[in-house]
Design a protein that fits this description.
It catalyses: L-aspartate + 2-oxoglutarate = oxaloacetate + L-glutamate. With 307 residues, this protein is an alpha/beta fold. The protein is built from twelve helices and nine strands. The chain has a single domain, classed as 3-Layer(aba) Sandwich (Aspartate Aminotransferase, domain 2). It is 39% helix and 15% strand.
Amino acid sequence: MADSVFNHVVRAPEDPILGVTVAYNKDTSPNKLNLGVGAYRTEEGKPLVLSVVRQAEQSLVNDPSRVKEYLPIIGLAEFNKLSAKLICGADSPAIQENRVTTVQCLSGTGSLRVGGEFLARHYHERTIYIPQPTWGNHPKVFTLAGLSVKYYRYYDPGTRGLDFQGLLEDLGSAPSGAVVLLHACAHNPTGVDPTVEQWEQIRQLMRSKQLLPFFDSAYQGFASGSLDADAQSVRMFVADGGECLVAQSYAKNMGLYGERVGALSIVCKTSDVAGKVESQLKLVIRPMYSNPPLHGASIVATILRDK
């Protein structure tokens, strides 16, 4: 047998986050506890499916009219509409004026990647500033999407709080037009969030510098217990009439980890621009995964449409 053409391939290290789960699964200790991926568990450490998700799935299974056809490239229309309302607010002028385009993506990670690739193709500034520290996958996602990653100060280990002055200084010295990644709430990994007053200062600074906000909303409802309160940072930026991007994940707040349900919303100045942006998002998605999965988005839509 000839040598493999892949003999030169080096074994890659485990992902620092998901690798913890690999180690956990290999460990034979009866007292092991997995602190790798943040996920709901029972008292016995078993995976937990929320009762509201069980109810939604049952109603979907019992509906004989449901089929398994492909979704459109941008996903399930009702899911997209309800996701935009959940993060922007149902009474948001941006939604009422059709200035928000939303596409269903593969959870938060896929939403970030689609947004990153869109910016790399169509935005004039290729630099994105991300907080130090941040979720370990952020720099990889944006680098591979074609953006140049830089950092701004965020966490102060001395106070175990926000380095607000450092944040303002770093964003203040960023080049005009740069993209800035912001955690909408429940900052990962520190859990430290700006106050409402600090968010307002961040908003004023970013708008004055024409910095483009890109929100990562992976924990809406987890920080305060209120979906509306946890969306306040995003809604402040949407309400001022400026543009921004928002990546949403339903992995955590609905416990839909394996369903990979997410959305990318881009708030634009006009409905005409939003339509053109959506047409280009389709060109990003089509050669990547063609169209998103149906089941998880149907669960989310079933829940969000029922008060």
